[in-house]
Write a structure and sequence with these properties.
The protein has 13 helices and 4 strands. It is of the alpha+beta class and 364 residues long.
Length: 364
């Protein structure tokens, strides 16, 4: 028989090799899908219910005695068929069962809150879908029998049954002689009931603690499987980036169109500039002080190299725009900026000196 490789069913084989993004995880959370273990919820509910039962055990036992006395004392009389007796029964039933049930529900809710990290309200998990009605036997077998999760759940269930059975057998075997001695030698029925209750209590406490301890690794297994299911393909990552940031190709084309429009408007851009920085033959950069920028900052209105640089200087002279020769500054601005960019912060000091000189010159 050929060996079954569990990696056949890994996310990578479906092309989902990328870790899930926070956007996808947030979307899944809104739909009510989060990493959680049902074992943890049920184990917390069981543990709190067992604690409540042990605390209330003597009181519940007294309630049972009272209800037995109430009904057995009336079983031979016509009063036994009185409809009011049903009200008495449900009154006793609610008093004994309701506290434990409330604590169990509280435990289950608490387990969900811990794992969900808060409240999640979504109707999507219970929304009827036709795809859920149509049986998918192949997918069912894949998830339940030929997957890591399925094998883990089977092993977990078998392990729980075996351990509880072995522990329960040893507990009963150790207490059985005492129970038999109470019944045979002393005839102490009430004491025998106490021993049976003690045996049951010890088994319940062990089971509750054992299930809680077992639910911790189960949570991490379920979380790992959830993150595997949430993994994304490279195409999904690209599509999500496009939706979040916009299509990079479209953005690049818009930027190119903007720059082309600015180049075509070079005569007007230069004429509206404050100063042209040149080196003086190869580069020319026209700057305009942009008052819309917080704290103010010059931006590049136009720039050019060689013939276009000479054109910019000619337009500047025709419009009485100051031309300042500064080789390193002109070369740096041309290399590090694009038309429409704010000048880099490293050039602020040099540009501020030039603007100060222009302001002083204009006053004269």
């Amino acid at each position: 028989m050929s060996q079954i490789d569990l990696q056949w069913f890994a996310a990578e084989d479906e092309g989902r090799t990328e870790e899930p993004s926070q956007i996808k995880l947030d979307k899944a959370r809104k739909e009510g899908r989060v990493a959680k273990s049902q074992e943890l919820n049920s184990s917390i509910a069981l543990l709190l219910s067992v604690i409540t039962l042990l605390i209330m055990a003597k009181w519940i036992f007294r309630q049972f005695i009272e209800i037995y006395v109430f009904f057995f004392s009336r079983c031979g009389t016509e009063d036994f068929f009185n409809p009011a007796n049903s009200v008495v029964f449900f009154n006793y039933f609610l008093k004994t069962v309701l506290p434990i049930a409330v604590v169990g529900v509280f435990g289950a809710v608490t387990g969900n809150l811990i794992q969900n990290r808060g409240f999640i309200f979504s109707l999507k998990p219970i929304t009827p879908r036709f795809s859920n009605i149509v049986p998918h036997i192949g997918n069912y077998l894949k998830k339940t029998m030929f997957s890591r999760t399925g094998l883990f759940n089977v092993a977990k269930s078998i392990g729980k049954v075996l351990i509880i059975a072995v522990v329960g057998f040893n507990m009963i075997r150790s207490d059985l002689p005492t129970l038999l001695s109470f019944i045979q030698e002393r005839g102490n029925i009430l004491g025998s009931v106490g021993i049976v209750a003690s045996m049951g209590a010890k088994l319940l406490v062990f089971a509750a603690i054992f299930f809680l301890v077992l639910s911790i690794p189960d949570y991490y297994v379920q979380r790992h499987e959830f993150m595997e299911q949430m993994k994304m393909t490279k195409e999904e990552v690209k599509q999500e980036y496009k939706e979040m940031e916009g299509d990079p190709e479209v953005k690049n084309k818009l930027e190119q169109a903007k720059r082309e429009m600015l180049r075509r408007n070079i005569p007007r851009a230069v004429a509206e500039s404050d100063v042209v920085i040149t080196n003086p033959t190869h580069f020319a950069v026209a700057l305009k002080y942009d008052t819309t920028i917080p704290n103010g900052a010059p931006q590049v209105n136009a720039k050019g190299e060689d013939l276009l640089a000479q054109t910019i200087k000619r337009i500047a002279r025709e419009n009485d725009i100051p031309i300042v020769e500064n080789k390193p500054l002109a070369r740096g601005l041309y290399a590090e900026t694009r038309i429409g960019d704010i000048i880099p912060e490293s050039y602020f000091k040099a540009i501020s000196v030039i603007y100060a000189q222009l302001k002083k010159f204009n006053k004269h």
